[in-house]
Design goal:
Elements lengths: L7 E6 L3 H12 L3 E7 L7 E4 L2 E4 L2 H4 L6 E4 L3 H13 L3 E5 L6 H11 L7 E4 L6 H12 L5 E9 L15 H4 L3 H17 L2 E9 L10 E8 L4 E7 L6 E8 L2 E6 L11 E7 L10 E7 L4 H15 L8 H17 L1 H6 L12
Parallel strand pairs: 1-2, 1-5, 2-4, 5-6, 6-7, 8-11
Antiparallel strand pairs: 3-4, 8-12, 9-10, 10-11, 12-13, 13-14, 14-15
Helix pairs in contact: 1-8, 3-4, 4-9, 7-9
Protein backbone atom coordinates (compact mmCIF):
# COMPACT_ATOMS: atom_id res chain seq x y z
CA UNK A 1 0.00 0.00 0.00
CA UNK A 2 1.06 3.54 -0.71
CA UNK A 3 2.14 5.00 2.64
CA UNK A 4 2.98 8.66 1.99
CA UNK A 5 -0.38 9.96 0.76
CA UNK A 6 -2.61 12.21 2.82
CA UNK A 7 -5.68 10.50 4.27
CA UNK A 8 -8.59 10.23 1.88
CA UNK A 9 -11.40 12.66 2.69
CA UNK A 10 -14.61 10.73 3.35
CA UNK A 11 -18.28 11.68 3.47
CA UNK A 12 -21.09 9.46 4.77
CA UNK A 13 -24.56 9.79 3.24
CA UNK A 14 -26.99 8.47 5.85
CA UNK A 15 -25.82 8.73 9.44
CA UNK A 16 -28.05 6.27 11.26
CA UNK A 17 -26.96 3.04 12.97
CA UNK A 18 -24.94 1.73 10.01
CA UNK A 19 -23.52 5.14 9.12
CA UNK A 20 -22.18 5.51 12.66
CA UNK A 21 -20.71 2.02 12.48
CA UNK A 22 -18.92 3.01 9.27
CA UNK A 23 -17.61 6.10 11.05
CA UNK A 24 -15.90 3.75 13.51
CA UNK A 25 -14.27 1.93 10.56
CA UNK A 26 -12.99 5.25 9.20
CA UNK A 27 -11.65 6.25 12.61
CA UNK A 28 -9.75 2.93 12.79
CA UNK A 29 -8.14 3.40 9.37
CA UNK A 30 -5.12 5.76 9.18
CA UNK A 31 -5.67 6.29 5.46
CA UNK A 32 -9.16 7.74 5.90
CA UNK A 33 -10.52 10.90 7.50
CA UNK A 34 -14.20 11.68 7.95
CA UNK A 35 -14.96 15.29 7.05
CA UNK A 36 -18.73 15.40 6.48
CA UNK A 37 -21.95 13.43 6.91
CA UNK A 38 -25.60 13.97 6.03
CA UNK A 39 -28.85 12.72 7.46
CA UNK A 40 -32.40 14.07 7.32
CA UNK A 41 -32.59 13.60 11.11
CA UNK A 42 -30.36 16.64 11.66
CA UNK A 43 -32.46 19.57 12.83
CA UNK A 44 -30.38 22.24 11.10
CA UNK A 45 -29.27 22.56 7.48
CA UNK A 46 -25.61 22.44 8.51
CA UNK A 47 -23.87 22.14 11.87
CA UNK A 48 -20.35 21.21 12.90
CA UNK A 49 -20.00 18.43 15.48
CA UNK A 50 -16.52 17.41 16.67
CA UNK A 51 -15.02 18.99 13.56
CA UNK A 52 -17.34 17.11 11.18
CA UNK A 53 -19.77 18.95 8.90
CA UNK A 54 -23.32 17.60 9.37
CA UNK A 55 -25.82 18.32 6.60
CA UNK A 56 -29.50 17.54 6.21
CA UNK A 57 -29.28 17.19 2.42
CA UNK A 58 -26.91 14.84 0.56
CA UNK A 59 -26.68 17.37 -2.28
CA UNK A 60 -24.80 19.69 0.10
CA UNK A 61 -22.58 16.81 1.19
CA UNK A 62 -21.61 16.10 -2.43
CA UNK A 63 -20.43 19.70 -2.85
CA UNK A 64 -17.74 19.13 -0.22
CA UNK A 65 -14.14 18.42 -1.22
CA UNK A 66 -14.30 14.63 -0.86
CA UNK A 67 -12.41 11.64 -2.21
CA UNK A 68 -14.74 8.90 -0.98
CA UNK A 69 -18.47 8.59 -0.42
CA UNK A 70 -20.02 5.92 1.83
CA UNK A 71 -23.74 5.42 1.15
CA UNK A 72 -25.90 4.16 4.03
CA UNK A 73 -29.31 5.28 2.80
CA UNK A 74 -32.72 3.66 2.29
CA UNK A 75 -33.17 1.33 -0.68
CA UNK A 76 -35.21 3.80 -2.72
CA UNK A 77 -32.40 6.34 -2.87
CA UNK A 78 -29.18 4.34 -2.40
CA UNK A 79 -28.63 3.78 -6.13
CA UNK A 80 -29.34 7.42 -6.97
CA UNK A 81 -26.85 8.73 -4.40
CA UNK A 82 -24.26 6.15 -5.49
CA UNK A 83 -24.66 7.31 -9.09
CA UNK A 84 -24.36 10.96 -8.07
CA UNK A 85 -21.22 10.15 -6.12
CA UNK A 86 -19.63 8.59 -9.20
CA UNK A 87 -20.68 11.55 -11.33
CA UNK A 88 -19.00 13.80 -8.75
CA UNK A 89 -15.72 11.92 -9.26
CA UNK A 90 -15.84 10.03 -5.94
CA UNK A 91 -14.95 6.47 -5.05
CA UNK A 92 -18.12 4.94 -3.58
CA UNK A 93 -18.83 2.28 -0.99
CA UNK A 94 -22.56 1.47 -0.81
CA UNK A 95 -24.31 -0.70 1.74
CA UNK A 96 -26.49 -3.61 0.63
CA UNK A 97 -28.92 -3.95 -0.99
CA UNK A 98 -27.79 -1.92 -4.00
CA UNK A 99 -31.34 -0.65 -4.53
CA UNK A 100 -34.96 -1.74 -4.71
CA UNK A 101 -34.61 -3.82 -7.87
CA UNK A 102 -32.29 -4.94 -10.67
CA UNK A 103 -32.89 -1.78 -12.67
CA UNK A 104 -31.43 0.32 -9.84
CA UNK A 105 -28.11 -1.52 -9.84
CA UNK A 106 -27.99 -1.63 -13.65
CA UNK A 107 -28.14 2.18 -13.72
CA UNK A 108 -25.26 2.32 -11.26
CA UNK A 109 -23.18 -0.12 -13.31
CA UNK A 110 -23.79 1.95 -16.43
CA UNK A 111 -22.51 5.06 -14.65
CA UNK A 112 -19.55 3.16 -13.18
CA UNK A 113 -18.40 2.18 -16.68
CA UNK A 114 -18.12 5.88 -17.55
CA UNK A 115 -15.57 6.31 -14.74
CA UNK A 116 -13.02 3.47 -14.99
CA UNK A 117 -10.67 5.35 -12.66
CA UNK A 118 -13.13 5.18 -9.75
CA UNK A 119 -13.69 2.30 -7.33
CA UNK A 120 -17.16 1.03 -6.43
CA UNK A 121 -17.73 -1.58 -3.73
CA UNK A 122 -20.80 -2.93 -1.95
CA UNK A 123 -21.27 -3.80 1.72
CA UNK A 124 -21.77 -7.56 1.56
CA UNK A 125 -20.24 -7.67 4.99
CA UNK A 126 -20.64 -11.41 5.65
CA UNK A 127 -17.96 -12.20 3.04
CA UNK A 128 -15.43 -10.64 5.41
CA UNK A 129 -16.31 -12.62 8.53
CA UNK A 130 -13.39 -14.81 9.57
CA UNK A 131 -15.52 -17.98 9.55
CA UNK A 132 -16.53 -17.36 5.94
CA UNK A 133 -12.98 -16.52 4.92
CA UNK A 134 -11.66 -19.72 6.52
CA UNK A 135 -14.39 -21.84 4.91
CA UNK A 136 -13.61 -20.33 1.52
CA UNK A 137 -9.89 -21.12 1.89
CA UNK A 138 -10.65 -24.76 2.73
CA UNK A 139 -13.03 -25.03 -0.22
CA UNK A 140 -10.50 -23.52 -2.62
CA UNK A 141 -7.77 -25.87 -1.36
CA UNK A 142 -9.74 -28.82 -2.73
CA UNK A 143 -9.04 -30.99 0.32
CA UNK A 144 -12.73 -31.79 0.80
CA UNK A 145 -13.52 -32.16 -2.90
CA UNK A 146 -16.33 -30.48 -4.78
CA UNK A 147 -19.61 -29.17 -3.38
CA UNK A 148 -22.64 -31.48 -3.58
CA UNK A 149 -25.28 -29.31 -1.93
CA UNK A 150 -25.87 -26.39 0.42
CA UNK A 151 -28.58 -25.62 2.99
CA UNK A 152 -28.94 -22.11 4.35
CA UNK A 153 -31.22 -20.52 6.96
CA UNK A 154 -31.10 -16.84 7.87
CA UNK A 155 -33.94 -15.71 10.06
CA UNK A 156 -35.15 -13.21 12.60
CA UNK A 157 -38.35 -12.87 14.61
CA UNK A 158 -40.05 -10.08 12.66
CA UNK A 159 -39.46 -7.67 9.81
CA UNK A 160 -38.52 -4.74 12.04
CA UNK A 161 -36.12 -5.57 14.86
CA UNK A 162 -33.86 -3.51 17.11
CA UNK A 163 -35.46 -0.12 16.32
CA UNK A 164 -34.95 -0.41 12.58
CA UNK A 165 -36.91 2.12 10.49
CA UNK A 166 -40.47 1.26 9.39
CA UNK A 167 -39.67 1.88 5.72
CA UNK A 168 -38.41 -1.72 5.61
CA UNK A 169 -42.06 -2.85 5.49
CA UNK A 170 -43.03 -0.54 2.61
CA UNK A 171 -42.51 -2.00 -0.87
CA UNK A 172 -42.30 1.39 -2.58
CA UNK A 173 -39.25 2.24 -0.46
CA UNK A 174 -37.69 -1.12 0.38
CA UNK A 175 -38.45 -3.04 -2.82
CA UNK A 176 -38.76 -6.29 -0.88
CA UNK A 177 -38.89 -7.80 2.58
CA UNK A 178 -36.73 -10.18 4.58
CA UNK A 179 -35.12 -11.79 1.52
CA UNK A 180 -33.90 -8.51 0.04
CA UNK A 181 -33.03 -6.98 3.40
CA UNK A 182 -31.34 -9.83 5.30
CA UNK A 183 -31.51 -13.00 3.19
CA UNK A 184 -29.50 -11.25 0.48
CA UNK A 185 -26.41 -12.01 2.60
CA UNK A 186 -27.12 -15.75 2.39
CA UNK A 187 -27.85 -15.50 -1.34
CA UNK A 188 -24.52 -13.72 -1.80
CA UNK A 189 -22.63 -16.38 0.16
CA UNK A 190 -24.23 -19.20 -1.81
CA UNK A 191 -23.13 -17.53 -5.04
CA UNK A 192 -19.66 -17.00 -3.58
CA UNK A 193 -19.29 -20.70 -2.71
CA UNK A 194 -21.23 -22.41 -5.52
CA UNK A 195 -21.33 -20.05 -8.49
CA UNK A 196 -24.32 -19.26 -10.71
CA UNK A 197 -27.68 -20.94 -10.08
CA UNK A 198 -29.49 -21.58 -13.36
CA UNK A 199 -32.67 -23.25 -12.02
CA UNK A 200 -34.75 -21.65 -9.29
CA UNK A 201 -38.00 -22.74 -7.61
CA UNK A 202 -39.60 -20.90 -4.72
CA UNK A 203 -42.47 -20.15 -2.37
CA UNK A 204 -42.78 -16.56 -1.15
CA UNK A 205 -45.15 -15.57 1.68
CA UNK A 206 -46.29 -12.55 3.65
CA UNK A 207 -48.99 -14.41 5.57
CA UNK A 208 -47.67 -13.77 9.11
CA UNK A 209 -47.05 -10.03 9.34
CA UNK A 210 -49.39 -8.90 6.56
CA UNK A 211 -47.16 -6.26 4.97
CA UNK A 212 -46.83 -5.99 1.20
CA UNK A 213 -43.30 -7.40 1.43
CA UNK A 214 -42.40 -11.01 2.20
CA UNK A 215 -41.83 -12.40 5.67
CA UNK A 216 -40.65 -15.79 4.35
CA UNK A 217 -38.88 -16.96 1.22
CA UNK A 218 -38.17 -20.62 0.50
CA UNK A 219 -36.00 -21.49 -2.48
CA UNK A 220 -34.59 -24.60 -4.16
CA UNK A 221 -31.86 -23.85 -6.69
CA UNK A 222 -29.40 -25.74 -8.90
CA UNK A 223 -26.23 -24.75 -10.77
CA UNK A 224 -25.43 -25.97 -14.28
CA UNK A 225 -22.97 -28.50 -12.82
CA UNK A 226 -25.50 -29.93 -10.38
CA UNK A 227 -24.89 -28.17 -7.04
CA UNK A 228 -28.23 -27.86 -5.23
CA UNK A 229 -28.89 -24.97 -2.85
CA UNK A 230 -31.79 -24.78 -0.39
CA UNK A 231 -32.60 -21.49 1.29
CA UNK A 232 -35.05 -20.16 3.87
CA UNK A 233 -34.99 -16.43 4.58
CA UNK A 234 -37.42 -15.82 7.41
CA UNK A 235 -39.00 -13.14 9.57
CA UNK A 236 -40.74 -15.78 11.70
CA UNK A 237 -37.57 -17.38 13.09
CA UNK A 238 -38.31 -16.70 16.75
CA UNK A 239 -34.83 -17.75 17.82
CA UNK A 240 -32.64 -15.69 15.48
CA UNK A 241 -30.53 -17.99 13.33
CA UNK A 242 -27.71 -18.00 10.80
CA UNK A 243 -26.78 -21.42 9.42
CA UNK A 244 -25.08 -22.56 6.22
CA UNK A 245 -24.27 -26.26 5.74
CA UNK A 246 -22.03 -26.95 2.74
CA UNK A 247 -21.71 -30.65 1.93
CA UNK A 248 -18.76 -31.76 -0.19
CA UNK A 249 -17.42 -35.03 -1.55
CA UNK A 250 -15.10 -35.61 1.42
CA UNK A 251 -16.79 -33.74 4.25
CA UNK A 252 -18.72 -30.64 5.21
CA UNK A 253 -18.22 -26.98 6.11
CA UNK A 254 -20.86 -25.79 8.56
CA UNK A 255 -21.16 -22.11 9.34
CA UNK A 256 -23.24 -21.60 12.47
CA UNK A 257 -24.09 -18.29 14.08
CA UNK A 258 -22.76 -14.93 13.03
CA UNK A 259 -21.28 -12.21 15.21
CA UNK A 260 -23.42 -9.10 14.93
CA UNK A 261 -24.05 -5.83 16.68
CA UNK A 262 -27.07 -7.33 18.45
CA UNK A 263 -25.34 -10.60 19.47
CA UNK A 264 -28.70 -12.35 18.86
CA UNK A 265 -27.46 -14.88 16.30
CA UNK A 266 -25.31 -16.81 18.74
CA UNK A 267 -21.65 -17.70 18.69
CA UNK A 268 -19.95 -17.65 15.30
CA UNK A 269 -18.47 -21.06 14.51
CA UNK A 270 -17.02 -23.05 11.64
CA UNK A 271 -17.33 -26.82 11.89
CA UNK A 272 -15.06 -28.74 9.53
CA UNK A 273 -16.17 -32.32 8.98
CA UNK A 274 -13.74 -34.75 7.37
CA UNK A 275 -15.74 -37.79 6.35
CA UNK A 276 -14.70 -41.39 5.75
CA UNK A 277 -17.92 -43.05 4.53
CA UNK A 278 -16.36 -46.53 4.67
CA UNK A 279 -15.40 -46.30 8.35
CA UNK A 280 -17.03 -43.48 10.31
CA UNK A 281 -20.60 -44.86 10.23
CA UNK A 282 -22.08 -41.42 9.71
CA UNK A 283 -20.34 -39.99 12.78
CA UNK A 284 -17.12 -38.47 11.45
CA UNK A 285 -14.51 -36.37 13.22
CA UNK A 286 -15.27 -32.69 13.52
CA UNK A 287 -13.13 -29.67 14.23
CA UNK A 288 -15.01 -26.67 15.58
CA UNK A 289 -13.55 -23.16 15.60
CA UNK A 290 -15.31 -20.44 17.57
CA UNK A 291 -14.71 -16.81 16.60
CA UNK A 292 -14.90 -14.31 19.45
CA UNK A 293 -14.35 -11.05 17.59
CA UNK A 294 -15.81 -9.52 14.42
CA UNK A 295 -13.17 -7.67 12.38
CA UNK A 296 -15.31 -7.81 9.21
CA UNK A 297 -16.45 -4.19 9.19
CA UNK A 298 -12.92 -2.81 9.44
CA UNK A 299 -11.60 -5.49 7.06
CA UNK A 300 -13.88 -4.67 4.14
CA UNK A 301 -13.28 -0.92 4.45
CA UNK A 302 -9.53 -1.64 4.57
CA UNK A 303 -9.83 -3.68 1.33
CA UNK A 304 -11.77 -0.86 -0.32
CA UNK A 305 -9.18 1.68 0.79
CA UNK A 306 -6.32 -0.44 -0.55
CA UNK A 307 -8.06 -0.67 -3.94
CA UNK A 308 -8.20 3.14 -4.07
CA UNK A 309 -4.64 3.79 -2.92
CA UNK A 310 -3.11 1.07 -5.11
CA UNK A 311 -5.46 1.67 -8.04
CA UNK A 312 -6.31 -2.04 -8.06
CA UNK A 313 -9.64 -3.58 -9.10
CA UNK A 314 -12.31 -4.46 -6.56
CA UNK A 315 -12.15 -8.25 -6.52
CA UNK A 316 -14.86 -9.04 -3.98
CA UNK A 317 -18.18 -7.25 -3.32
CA UNK A 318 -17.85 -5.52 -6.68
CA UNK A 319 -20.73 -4.13 -8.72
CA UNK A 320 -20.68 -7.38 -10.72
CA UNK A 321 -21.15 -9.34 -7.48
CA UNK A 322 -23.96 -6.99 -6.44
CA UNK A 323 -25.72 -7.34 -9.79
CA UNK A 324 -25.49 -11.15 -9.77
CA UNK A 325 -26.82 -11.28 -6.21
CA UNK A 326 -29.73 -8.98 -7.01
CA UNK A 327 -30.56 -11.04 -10.07
CA UNK A 328 -30.72 -14.23 -8.01
CA UNK A 329 -32.88 -12.54 -5.36
CA UNK A 330 -35.35 -11.52 -8.06
CA UNK A 331 -35.20 -14.94 -9.72
CA UNK A 332 -36.40 -16.28 -6.37
CA UNK A 333 -39.25 -13.75 -6.27
CA UNK A 334 -40.17 -14.45 -9.90
CA UNK A 335 -40.16 -18.24 -9.51
CA UNK A 336 -43.28 -18.11 -7.31
CA UNK A 337 -46.01 -17.58 -9.92
CA UNK A 338 -48.53 -16.19 -7.43
CA UNK A 339 -46.06 -13.72 -5.92
CA UNK A 340 -44.92 -12.75 -9.40
CA UNK A 341 -48.49 -11.94 -10.42
CA UNK A 342 -49.55 -10.18 -7.22
CA UNK A 343 -46.51 -7.89 -7.09
CA UNK A 344 -45.81 -7.57 -10.81
CA UNK A 345 -42.27 -8.97 -10.60
CA UNK A 346 -40.65 -8.68 -14.06
CA UNK A 347 -38.65 -11.57 -15.44
CA UNK A 348 -35.02 -11.05 -14.34
CA UNK A 349 -32.58 -10.68 -17.19
CA UNK A 350 -29.21 -12.38 -17.17
CA UNK A 351 -25.99 -10.69 -16.14
CA UNK A 352 -24.48 -11.12 -19.61
CA UNK A 353 -27.00 -8.66 -21.03
CA UNK A 354 -25.35 -5.76 -19.19
Amino acid sequence: MVEDKKPLRVGIAGFGIIGKQRKDCIDHNPHLRLVAVCDKAFTEECVVVDGILCYQDYNHLLKENLDVLIVCMSNDIAAEVTTMGLKSGLHVFCEKPPGRNIEDIVKVVSEERRHPNLKLMYGFNHRYHESVQDALRILESGELGKIINMRGIYGKSKLITFNQPVWRTKREIAGGGVLLDQGIHMVDLMLLFAGEFTEVYSFISNSRWGHNVEDNAYAMMRTSDGIVGMLNSSATQWRHQFYLDINLELGSLILGGILSRTKSYGAETLTVVRADPDNDQGDPKEQITRYNQDPSWDAEIAVFTECILNDSPVQSSSSEDALRTMQLVFKIYYADTVWRKNYKIPKPTTYEQY
